[in-house]
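re: that chain from earlier
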Amino acid sequence: MSEPPAETLQALSAGRLLRDGLILLAAAIVVAGACSMVGVAELTVNVWRMRLLRLATASAVGSALAAAGMALQALLRNPLAEPYVLGVSSGAGVGVLVGSVLAARGLFRIGWAGTPALALAGAVGSCLVVYGVAQRRGRLDPYVLLLSGVIVNVFNGALMLAILLLSRSADIINFVGWGMGQIGDATDASLLWLCAAFILAAWSVLFLRGAWFNALGLGDDVAGSAGVPVHWLRVETFALAALMTAAAVALAGPVGFVGLIVPHVCRMIIGADHRRLVLFSGFVGAMFLMLADTLCRTVGEWVSVGSVPVGIITAISGGPFFIHLLRGRLKESSA
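^ sequence. v structure.
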């Protein structure tokens, strides 16, 4: 039996990706609808609209962090890489916090468009430091990258604490909740649309780079011989990850470990084909964070403490998950 031509294989692949995308989109809509019905408060039209806005924010943040984590893991061939671990999220948080404090003191005027710009500046700054430290003779050392990310995280955390000392007492509570990763009930619609547009654009580029990520999994030399511009792919991936992370932090603060958990779980279920993995990571990340935030919102209503930061749930689940992956990598390296 003769093999089907390459055009047929490409059409079949495109059809499968389209089918996967439609199924995942339908699943995300179902999850959003179900989550919008959950809660202690009486379900009025205004309450339902507020919940839908909050779920839209959660889905944008979850998809951004999960897709960015997938891209960084593919680039470094290391499942431990993700924006929070590498210090990109905390860098974006520093940028937003600096602008917020200056604005509160009347020294700087920040609008809805200024928040993502400040977050992007902080995220890019952290990326440049981490990338510069880990690059040696045109190659990236994944473990040096992770260690430099930990150091940048500690430094950014110290910066945020120092900034809080300069904040007014009335603003500290809001800043602390935001620093834990909190999705609010009254997200600015213009800010949400702007960040969602950035996330969708970056996500689309990552989808187009799926075949390059597949080739990169065979090694830099093999990918280069196959025509993949390895150096450009690194720069582009870090830039896209910084953009998506900045958009997520502008909406909800530094939410950790979504980019670690979701891509790894998706990889275990569907395999390592990054053309499908980028789709599944984005949609599953959106559904994961919608469910997590619904749990936080419901618990907050039950105990009358307001909104519980969703970053608490992701950190509680992501910390042990990170340790499990780290132990697995150590066993592989010692075998």
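The chain has 13 helices and two strands.
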